[in-house]
Protein backbone atom coordinates (compact mmCIF):
# COMPACT_ATOMS: atom_id res chain seq x y z
CA UNK A 1 0.00 0.00 0.00
CA UNK A 2 2.81 2.36 0.94
CA UNK A 3 4.75 1.56 -2.29
CA UNK A 4 1.61 2.00 -4.32
CA UNK A 5 0.90 5.39 -2.70
CA UNK A 6 4.53 6.40 -3.08
CA UNK A 7 4.43 5.47 -6.76
CA UNK A 8 1.27 7.52 -7.26
CA UNK A 9 2.80 10.52 -5.49
CA UNK A 10 5.95 10.17 -7.62
CA UNK A 11 3.91 10.17 -10.80
CA UNK A 12 1.98 13.21 -9.65
CA UNK A 13 5.23 15.02 -8.89
CA UNK A 14 6.62 14.24 -12.34
CA UNK A 15 3.40 15.48 -13.93
CA UNK A 16 3.54 18.74 -11.95
CA UNK A 17 7.21 19.31 -12.77
CA UNK A 18 6.53 18.55 -16.42
CA UNK A 19 3.71 21.09 -16.42
CA UNK A 20 6.02 23.74 -15.00
CA UNK A 21 8.71 22.83 -17.51
CA UNK A 22 6.35 23.13 -20.45
CA UNK A 23 4.87 26.28 -18.99
CA UNK A 24 8.33 27.79 -18.69
CA UNK A 25 9.18 26.73 -22.20
CA UNK A 26 5.92 28.12 -23.49
CA UNK A 27 6.50 31.42 -21.68
CA UNK A 28 10.02 31.65 -23.06
CA UNK A 29 8.79 30.99 -26.59
CA UNK A 30 5.96 33.52 -26.15
CA UNK A 31 8.37 36.15 -24.82
CA UNK A 32 10.69 35.54 -27.76
CA UNK A 33 7.77 35.83 -30.15
CA UNK A 34 6.55 39.05 -28.54
CA UNK A 35 10.05 40.52 -28.64
CA UNK A 36 10.28 39.70 -32.33
CA UNK A 37 6.83 41.17 -32.97
CA UNK A 38 7.71 44.30 -31.02
CA UNK A 39 10.90 44.64 -33.04
CA UNK A 40 8.97 44.32 -36.30
CA UNK A 41 6.51 46.96 -35.16
CA UNK A 42 9.18 49.63 -34.66
CA UNK A 43 8.55 50.66 -38.26
CA UNK A 44 6.09 52.92 -40.05
CA UNK A 45 5.78 52.95 -43.84
CA UNK A 46 4.87 56.38 -45.26
CA UNK A 47 3.66 56.82 -48.85
CA UNK A 48 3.36 60.35 -50.25
CA UNK A 49 4.98 62.94 -52.53
CA UNK A 50 8.73 63.49 -52.44
CA UNK A 51 9.86 65.81 -49.61
CA UNK A 52 6.29 66.30 -48.37
CA UNK A 53 7.32 65.30 -44.85
CA UNK A 54 10.65 67.10 -44.22
CA UNK A 55 13.69 65.02 -43.26
CA UNK A 56 14.24 66.85 -39.97
CA UNK A 57 10.63 66.16 -38.95
CA UNK A 58 11.10 62.48 -39.78
CA UNK A 59 14.26 62.38 -37.67
CA UNK A 60 12.49 64.02 -34.72
CA UNK A 61 9.75 61.39 -34.88
CA UNK A 62 12.29 58.56 -35.02
CA UNK A 63 14.24 59.99 -32.08
CA UNK A 64 11.13 60.53 -29.96
CA UNK A 65 9.46 57.17 -30.62
CA UNK A 66 12.24 54.81 -31.68
CA UNK A 67 10.10 53.98 -34.72
CA UNK A 68 11.95 53.88 -38.04
CA UNK A 69 10.27 55.69 -40.94
CA UNK A 70 10.36 54.06 -44.37
CA UNK A 71 9.50 56.82 -46.84
CA UNK A 72 8.24 55.97 -50.33
CA UNK A 73 7.03 58.63 -52.74
CA UNK A 74 4.69 58.88 -55.71
CA UNK A 75 4.24 61.65 -58.29
CA UNK A 76 0.45 61.78 -58.67
CA UNK A 77 -2.63 60.73 -56.74
CA UNK A 78 -3.53 58.36 -59.56
CA UNK A 79 -0.14 56.65 -59.32
CA UNK A 80 -0.69 56.25 -55.57
CA UNK A 81 -4.12 54.72 -56.10
CA UNK A 82 -2.82 52.23 -58.65
CA UNK A 83 -0.07 51.06 -56.27
CA UNK A 84 -2.42 50.84 -53.31
CA UNK A 85 -4.85 48.78 -55.40
CA UNK A 86 -2.01 46.50 -56.48
CA UNK A 87 -1.14 45.66 -52.85
CA UNK A 88 -4.84 45.60 -51.82
CA UNK A 89 -4.42 48.21 -49.12
CA UNK A 90 -1.42 46.57 -47.48
CA UNK A 91 2.32 47.40 -47.31
CA UNK A 92 1.86 51.08 -46.36
CA UNK A 93 0.89 52.41 -42.91
CA UNK A 94 0.19 56.07 -43.68
CA UNK A 95 -0.68 57.57 -47.05
CA UNK A 96 -0.82 61.33 -47.55
CA UNK A 97 -2.99 62.11 -50.56
CA UNK A 98 -5.50 64.62 -51.93
CA UNK A 99 -9.15 65.19 -51.20
CA UNK A 100 -10.68 63.92 -54.45
CA UNK A 101 -8.72 60.66 -54.36
CA UNK A 102 -10.00 60.05 -50.81
CA UNK A 103 -13.48 60.44 -52.28
CA UNK A 104 -12.65 57.98 -55.07
CA UNK A 105 -11.33 55.37 -52.62
CA UNK A 106 -14.29 55.84 -50.30
CA UNK A 107 -16.71 54.94 -53.09
CA UNK A 108 -15.00 51.72 -54.11
CA UNK A 109 -16.57 48.37 -53.34
CA UNK A 110 -13.46 47.23 -51.50
CA UNK A 111 -12.46 50.34 -49.56
CA UNK A 112 -8.68 50.66 -49.40
CA UNK A 113 -8.77 52.82 -46.25
CA UNK A 114 -9.70 51.93 -42.69
CA UNK A 115 -11.71 54.21 -40.38
CA UNK A 116 -9.43 56.33 -38.24
CA UNK A 117 -9.79 55.85 -34.49
CA UNK A 118 -9.55 59.49 -33.40
CA UNK A 119 -9.50 58.43 -29.73
CA UNK A 120 -5.93 57.26 -30.42
CA UNK A 121 -4.95 60.60 -31.97
CA UNK A 122 -5.12 63.18 -29.20
CA UNK A 123 -3.84 66.03 -31.39
CA UNK A 124 -6.82 65.68 -33.72
CA UNK A 125 -8.30 68.53 -31.64
CA UNK A 126 -5.67 70.86 -33.16
CA UNK A 127 -7.12 70.65 -36.69
CA UNK A 128 -8.99 73.80 -37.73
CA UNK A 129 -12.66 72.80 -37.97
CA UNK A 130 -13.13 74.77 -41.20
CA UNK A 131 -11.09 72.08 -42.95
CA UNK A 132 -13.08 69.19 -41.46
CA UNK A 133 -16.31 67.52 -42.58
CA UNK A 134 -15.78 68.25 -46.28
CA UNK A 135 -17.81 66.67 -49.07
CA UNK A 136 -15.11 64.16 -49.97
CA UNK A 137 -15.19 62.56 -46.48
CA UNK A 138 -18.12 63.63 -44.34
CA UNK A 139 -17.30 63.28 -40.66
CA UNK A 140 -13.66 62.56 -41.52
CA UNK A 141 -14.24 58.85 -41.22
CA UNK A 142 -11.14 57.97 -43.22
CA UNK A 143 -9.04 61.13 -43.39
CA UNK A 144 -7.43 63.89 -41.33
CA UNK A 145 -6.23 67.13 -43.00
CA UNK A 146 -2.48 67.70 -43.23
CA UNK A 147 -2.07 70.75 -45.47
CA UNK A 148 -3.87 72.69 -48.15
CA UNK A 149 -2.39 73.81 -51.44
CA UNK A 150 -3.08 75.18 -54.87
CA UNK A 151 -1.35 75.84 -58.17
CA UNK A 152 -0.30 79.13 -59.72
CA UNK A 153 1.56 80.71 -62.61
CA UNK A 154 5.17 81.82 -62.17
CA UNK A 155 7.11 83.70 -64.84
CA UNK A 156 10.28 85.67 -65.51
CA UNK A 157 9.35 89.27 -66.47
CA UNK A 158 12.86 89.82 -67.88
CA UNK A 159 12.07 87.27 -70.60
CA UNK A 160 8.30 87.59 -70.93
CA UNK A 161 7.01 91.10 -71.57
CA UNK A 162 3.35 90.07 -71.88
CA UNK A 163 1.16 90.93 -68.91
CA UNK A 164 0.23 87.54 -67.46
CA UNK A 165 -3.13 87.47 -65.66
CA UNK A 166 -4.55 84.00 -66.07
CA UNK A 167 -4.65 80.63 -67.78
CA UNK A 168 -5.63 82.12 -71.13
CA UNK A 169 -2.26 83.88 -71.36
CA UNK A 170 -0.42 80.55 -71.35
CA UNK A 171 -1.74 79.93 -74.87
CA UNK A 172 0.05 82.99 -76.29
CA UNK A 173 2.10 81.81 -79.34
CA UNK A 174 4.93 84.07 -78.17
CA UNK A 175 5.55 81.55 -75.36
CA UNK A 176 6.49 78.74 -77.75
CA UNK A 177 8.97 76.31 -76.18
CA UNK A 178 9.30 78.32 -72.96
CA UNK A 179 6.89 76.66 -70.52
CA UNK A 180 7.09 74.09 -67.73
CA UNK A 181 3.94 72.35 -66.51
CA UNK A 182 3.42 70.27 -63.40
CA UNK A 183 3.08 66.71 -64.68
CA UNK A 184 -0.46 66.04 -63.47
CA UNK A 185 -3.48 65.36 -65.66
CA UNK A 186 -6.17 66.68 -63.30
CA UNK A 187 -4.34 69.95 -62.75
CA UNK A 188 -3.52 70.74 -66.39
CA UNK A 189 -6.83 69.56 -67.84
CA UNK A 190 -8.56 71.35 -64.96
CA UNK A 191 -6.94 74.69 -65.75
CA UNK A 192 -7.80 74.20 -69.44
CA UNK A 193 -11.46 73.70 -68.54
CA UNK A 194 -11.37 76.86 -66.41
CA UNK A 195 -9.92 78.77 -69.37
CA UNK A 196 -13.00 77.67 -71.34
CA UNK A 197 -15.30 78.81 -68.54
CA UNK A 198 -16.16 75.32 -67.31
CA UNK A 199 -15.75 73.47 -64.03
CA UNK A 200 -12.48 71.68 -63.28
CA UNK A 201 -14.63 68.61 -62.66
CA UNK A 202 -16.37 68.63 -66.04
CA UNK A 203 -17.57 65.23 -67.30
CA UNK A 204 -19.58 66.31 -70.37
CA UNK A 205 -18.01 64.74 -73.47
CA UNK A 206 -18.55 67.79 -75.69
CA UNK A 207 -16.80 70.07 -73.21
CA UNK A 208 -13.97 67.59 -72.69
CA UNK A 209 -13.49 67.43 -76.46
CA UNK A 210 -13.14 71.21 -76.43
CA UNK A 211 -10.52 70.95 -73.70
CA UNK A 212 -8.67 68.33 -75.75
CA UNK A 213 -8.60 70.70 -78.73
CA UNK A 214 -7.36 73.55 -76.52
CA UNK A 215 -4.54 71.43 -75.14
CA UNK A 216 -3.43 70.64 -78.66
CA UNK A 217 -2.99 74.39 -79.20
CA UNK A 218 -1.04 74.70 -75.94
CA UNK A 219 1.40 71.85 -76.64
CA UNK A 220 3.94 73.85 -78.73
CA UNK A 221 4.49 76.18 -75.77
CA UNK A 222 5.36 73.35 -73.38
CA UNK A 223 9.02 72.44 -73.06
CA UNK A 224 9.09 70.53 -69.77
CA UNK A 225 6.74 68.28 -67.78
CA UNK A 226 7.84 67.79 -64.18
CA UNK A 227 5.77 66.53 -61.24
CA UNK A 228 8.23 67.04 -58.39
CA UNK A 229 10.61 69.88 -59.30
CA UNK A 230 9.12 72.04 -62.09
CA UNK A 231 10.61 75.13 -60.45
CA UNK A 232 14.15 73.92 -61.23
CA UNK A 233 13.77 74.65 -64.95
CA UNK A 234 12.65 78.20 -64.13
CA UNK A 235 15.57 78.70 -61.78
CA UNK A 236 18.06 77.40 -64.34
CA UNK A 237 16.55 79.54 -67.10
CA UNK A 238 15.61 76.53 -69.20
CA UNK A 239 12.02 77.81 -69.15
CA UNK A 240 10.55 81.28 -68.62
CA UNK A 241 7.05 80.54 -67.40
CA UNK A 242 5.40 77.72 -65.51
CA UNK A 243 2.25 76.40 -63.88
CA UNK A 244 2.95 74.57 -60.63
CA UNK A 245 2.13 74.07 -56.95
CA UNK A 246 2.51 77.02 -54.62
CA UNK A 247 5.36 75.35 -52.73
CA UNK A 248 7.24 74.94 -56.00
CA UNK A 249 6.48 78.53 -56.98
CA UNK A 250 7.84 79.67 -53.62
CA UNK A 251 11.07 77.74 -54.17
CA UNK A 252 11.45 79.37 -57.59
CA UNK A 253 10.95 82.91 -56.26
CA UNK A 254 13.27 82.28 -53.33
CA UNK A 255 16.02 81.29 -55.78
CA UNK A 256 15.23 84.12 -58.17
CA UNK A 257 13.34 87.04 -56.56
CA UNK A 258 12.73 88.58 -60.00
CA UNK A 259 10.19 85.86 -60.78
CA UNK A 260 6.55 86.86 -60.43
CA UNK A 261 3.64 84.84 -59.05
CA UNK A 262 0.17 85.14 -60.60
CA UNK A 263 -3.11 83.90 -59.15
CA UNK A 264 -5.07 82.91 -62.29
CA UNK A 265 -8.08 85.20 -62.64
CA UNK A 266 -10.27 82.36 -63.92
CA UNK A 267 -10.13 80.64 -60.51
CA UNK A 268 -7.73 78.25 -58.81
CA UNK A 269 -7.87 74.67 -57.64
CA UNK A 270 -7.98 74.29 -53.84
CA UNK A 271 -6.53 70.96 -52.80
CA UNK A 272 -6.70 69.54 -49.27
CA UNK A 273 -4.17 66.81 -48.55
CA UNK A 274 -4.89 64.23 -45.87
CA UNK A 275 -3.50 61.45 -43.73
CA UNK A 276 -5.20 58.10 -44.35
CA UNK A 277 -4.43 54.61 -43.02
CA UNK A 278 -4.70 51.78 -45.60
CA UNK A 279 -7.13 49.00 -44.76
CA UNK A 280 -4.38 46.41 -44.25
CA UNK A 281 -1.71 48.68 -42.76
CA UNK A 282 0.86 46.36 -41.11
CA UNK A 283 1.64 48.82 -38.28
CA UNK A 284 -1.61 50.56 -37.38
CA UNK A 285 -0.53 51.75 -33.92
CA UNK A 286 2.64 53.24 -35.33
CA UNK A 287 0.56 54.95 -38.01
CA UNK A 288 -1.58 56.54 -35.30
CA UNK A 289 1.55 57.66 -33.44
CA UNK A 290 2.94 59.23 -36.61
CA UNK A 291 -0.27 61.11 -37.42
CA UNK A 292 -0.59 62.33 -33.83
CA UNK A 293 3.02 63.52 -33.93
CA UNK A 294 2.43 65.41 -37.18
CA UNK A 295 -0.63 67.15 -35.67
CA UNK A 296 1.42 68.62 -32.81
CA UNK A 297 1.39 72.41 -33.26
CA UNK A 298 5.15 72.92 -33.29
CA UNK A 299 5.78 69.92 -35.56
CA UNK A 300 2.96 70.94 -37.91
CA UNK A 301 4.48 74.40 -38.26
CA UNK A 302 7.94 72.93 -38.89
CA UNK A 303 6.51 70.76 -41.67
CA UNK A 304 4.58 73.49 -43.49
CA UNK A 305 7.38 76.03 -43.09
CA UNK A 306 9.62 73.55 -44.89
CA UNK A 307 7.20 72.31 -47.57
CA UNK A 308 5.50 75.73 -47.91
CA UNK A 309 1.89 74.61 -47.97
CA UNK A 310 -1.07 76.19 -46.15
CA UNK A 311 -1.23 74.97 -42.57
CA UNK A 312 -4.54 73.49 -41.35
CA UNK A 313 -3.52 73.29 -37.69
CA UNK A 314 -4.75 75.90 -35.17
CA UNK A 315 -2.06 74.99 -32.63
CA UNK A 316 0.66 75.76 -35.20
CA UNK A 317 -0.16 79.47 -35.53
CA UNK A 318 1.77 80.52 -32.43
CA UNK A 319 4.96 79.12 -33.99
CA UNK A 320 4.63 80.74 -37.45
CA UNK A 321 7.28 83.20 -38.59
CA UNK A 322 6.53 86.51 -40.33
CA UNK A 323 8.32 85.19 -43.40
CA UNK A 324 5.95 82.24 -43.62
CA UNK A 325 2.86 84.37 -42.96
CA UNK A 326 3.89 86.81 -45.71
CA UNK A 327 4.71 84.15 -48.30
CA UNK A 328 2.59 84.99 -51.36
CA UNK A 329 2.85 81.41 -52.63
CA UNK A 330 1.44 80.02 -49.38
CA UNK A 331 -1.23 82.45 -48.21
CA UNK A 332 -3.72 83.17 -50.97
CA UNK A 333 -5.85 86.36 -50.67
CA UNK A 334 -9.44 85.66 -49.61
CA UNK A 335 -10.84 87.02 -52.88
CA UNK A 336 -8.86 84.42 -54.83
CA UNK A 337 -9.37 81.67 -52.30
CA UNK A 338 -13.15 82.05 -52.38
CA UNK A 339 -13.13 81.55 -56.15
CA UNK A 340 -11.26 78.28 -55.72
CA UNK A 341 -12.69 74.92 -56.71
CA UNK A 342 -12.00 71.50 -55.18
CA UNK A 343 -11.42 68.51 -57.43
CA UNK A 344 -14.10 65.82 -57.21
CA UNK A 345 -14.46 62.20 -58.21
CA UNK A 346 -14.92 62.06 -62.00
CA UNK A 347 -16.42 58.60 -62.11
CA UNK A 348 -16.15 56.95 -65.53
CA UNK A 349 -15.00 60.25 -67.06
CA UNK A 350 -11.60 59.66 -65.41
CA UNK A 351 -10.77 57.33 -68.33
CA UNK A 352 -11.45 60.16 -70.77
CA UNK A 353 -9.11 62.44 -68.82
CA UNK A 354 -6.40 59.76 -69.02
CA UNK A 355 -6.79 59.50 -72.79
CA UNK A 356 -6.72 63.28 -73.26
CA UNK A 357 -3.59 63.53 -71.13
CA UNK A 358 -1.81 60.69 -72.89
CA UNK A 359 -2.46 62.21 -76.33
CA UNK A 360 -1.47 65.68 -75.13
CA UNK A 361 1.93 64.56 -73.83
CA UNK A 362 2.67 62.47 -76.90
CA UNK A 363 2.06 65.28 -79.41
UniProtKB/TrEMBL annotation:
Where in or outside the cell it occurs: the entry states: Periplasm
- Residues noted as binding spermidine in the record, renumbered to the chain: 100
Identify the CDD domains for this entry: PBP2_PotD_PotF_like
Q: Which Pfam families does this UniProt record tie to the protein?
A: SBP_bac_8 (PF13416)
From its record, what is one biological process in GO terms? Answer: polyamine transport
Principal cellular location given in the protein's record: periplasm
In the UniProt record, the signal sequence range is 1-23
Record keywords: Transport included?
Answer: yes
Q: Which GO terms describe its cellular component?
A: periplasmic space
Q: Is Signal one of the keywords?
A: yes
Picking any one GO molecular function of the record gives:
polyamine binding
Which UniProt keywords are given for this protein, alphabetically ordered?
Periplasm, Signal, Transport
User: PROSITE patterns given for it?
Assistant: PROKAR_LIPOPROTEIN
Q: What is this protein called?
A: Extracellular solute-binding protein family 1
Amino acid sequence: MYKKLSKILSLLLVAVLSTFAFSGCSKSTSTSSNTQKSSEEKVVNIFTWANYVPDDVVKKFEKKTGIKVNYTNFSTNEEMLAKLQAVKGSQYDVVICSDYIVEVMGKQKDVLMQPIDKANIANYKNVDTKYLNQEYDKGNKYSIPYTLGTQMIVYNPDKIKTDIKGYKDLWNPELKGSMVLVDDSRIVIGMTLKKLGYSMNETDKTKLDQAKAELKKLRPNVKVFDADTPHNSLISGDTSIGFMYGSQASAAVRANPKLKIVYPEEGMNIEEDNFVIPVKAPHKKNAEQFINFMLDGEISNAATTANEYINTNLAAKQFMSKEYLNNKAVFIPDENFKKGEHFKDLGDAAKTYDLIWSEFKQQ
